[in-house]
Amino acid sequence: MALWERTDVAVYEQVVVLFSCVLSALGSALVMGTYALWPDLRTTPRQLLVFLSVADLLSAVSYAYGVYMVFHDNTWDCVTQGAVSTFSNTSSFFWTVAIAIYLYIFIVKASQRLADSLVLYFHLISWGVPVAITVAAVSLQKIGYDASEVSVGWCWINIEEDDHVMWMLLTGKIWELLAYLILPVLYILIKRHIHKAHAALSEYRPILACNRLSHSIPAMADRKLTLIPIIFIALRIWSTVRFVLLLIDSPARQNPVLVILHGIGNTFQGAANCIMFVLCTRPVRLRLAAWLCCLSRDTRSNSDIPSQYAPSQSLSHTDRPSVSRLERDESEDEE
Fold first, then answer.
1. β-sheet bridge partners, residue 144
2. Is residue 73 domain-shared with residue 133, that is, in the same domain?
3. Which residues contact residue 1 at a Cβ distance below 8 angstroms, ignoring those fewer than 6 apart?
4. SS3 144
C-alpha cells in the first residue's frame, strides 16, 4: 500500500453509516412485508420493487458488516463481503432501471402484455449479469481491500491491482453512470405522456373510485415520477464524486463530509424506496396503519380478563368498515 494513503474511517462516521444501513434493511424488509401481507397489492411494478428491495437488503447487510469491521487487509471475510456487496449493488442498478423500463412500456406504449413479457428478461439480466461479474472478479482475485479510497470501511476492488480502475467500472461504476442517463430520460418521457393524456394514467392505475381521487392522482404520480431519478442520483452521486477524485488523485476524496455522504448514499436506497412506495403511498400506508392498530388491539385484548375479551372482539369487528374504506383507495398512486 505504499502508493495509497488509507482513508481513516472515524467512529462517528461508522455510527452514521451503520444507522443508514439499519434503516435501509428495515425499509427493504417493510417493502417485502407489505407485498406479502396484501395479495391485492401485488401488481407487477410492486413485484419488481420487491426484487429491488432484496438486492438493497443484501447491500445494506454486507455494507453494515464492512463498516463495522473496517477492514485493513485482504482477509477471507473482506473478500466475501466485497463479493456480496458487488453483486447486490450491481443488481440494484439493474432492477432500478428495469422498473423504469417496465413503467415506460406500460404507460407510454400502453402495452401491459409487452411489459409483462420483459419480466423474465429482467430476472436474467438483473441477477445473471451481476453474478457473472462477481464470479469473474472473485476468480481473478480482483475483490479485496481498497483502503477506503472509494468505500467507507467495506471491501470492494483491491486497490493494489494495476487494473483496479477497469474493475471498479465493470463492477459498479459503469452501470451507475448508465443509470444516471437512462432513469431521467425514461421518467421525463413518462411524465410528458401523462401531461399530454391523462388517459394513460388510467392504464397505469386501476379504475378510479371517485372524482376526488381522479384530481389527486396526476399530481401524486407526477411528484413520484420526478422524485425517483432525483433521489437515486442524489444518493449515488457522492460515490461517483469520490471515484472521479480517485482518478485524478485528489486528496479531497478523504474529506470526512464526503465520506459520510458516500456512506449514506450507498446504503440508504432501501429506506428511500420504503419512504416513497410504502410510507408515502396512501393505500399502503393506511393498510399498514390499520394492521398495526389491529395488532395493538389484539395485544390489549389478550391481556384482558376473559369477561372483557368478548366486547374487545366485538369492537374489532365493528371497526372493520374503516379498514374496508382502504379498498376504495386502491386507485391512488401505488408505485
1. 156
2. yes
3. 147, 159, 160
4. strand
CA distance 17 to 214: 41
pLDDT digits (tens, 9 = 90+) for 176-203: 999 999 999 999 998 888 877 655 445 4
Within-domain flag for 61? yes
- Rounded distance, CA 286 to CA 8, Å? 44
- Give the CA angle between residues 273, 229, 208 to the nearest 5°: 65
Please check whether residues 276 and 287 belong to one and the same domain.
Answer: no
Give whole-number Cα distances, 42 to 23, 112, 118, 188, 244, in Å.
Answer: 24, 15, 17, 26, 40
DSSP state letters, 62-131: HHHHHHHH---S--HHHHHHHHHHHHHHHHHHHHHHHHHHHHIIIIIS--HHHHHHTHHHHHHHHHHHHH
Does 320 lie in the same domain as 213? no
3-state secondary structure of 185: helix
User: In the structure grid, which three cell numbers stand for residue 334, read together?
Assistant: 401505488
Residue 72 lies in a domain: yes
Please tell me the distance from the alpha carbon of residue 94 to that of residue 182, in angstroms, as a whole number.
11
In the numeric block, which cell numbers belong to residue 216?
389527486
End-to-end Cα spacing for the chain? 47
* Residues of the domain holding 220: 11-280
In a domain, 237, yes or no: yes
Shortest CA distance to 55 belongs to which of 267, 237, 260?
267
Alpha carbons 69 and 83: distance in angstroms, whole number: 16
Task: Report the distance separating Cα 50 and Cα 34, nearest Å.
Answer: 10
Q: What is the pLDDT of residues 71-81, one digit of tens each?
A: 988 999 999 99
pTM of the complete model: 0.81
Same domain, 165 and 68: yes
Is 114 found in the same domain as 262?
A: yes
Rounded-to-integer distance, Cα 13 and Cα 69, Å: 13
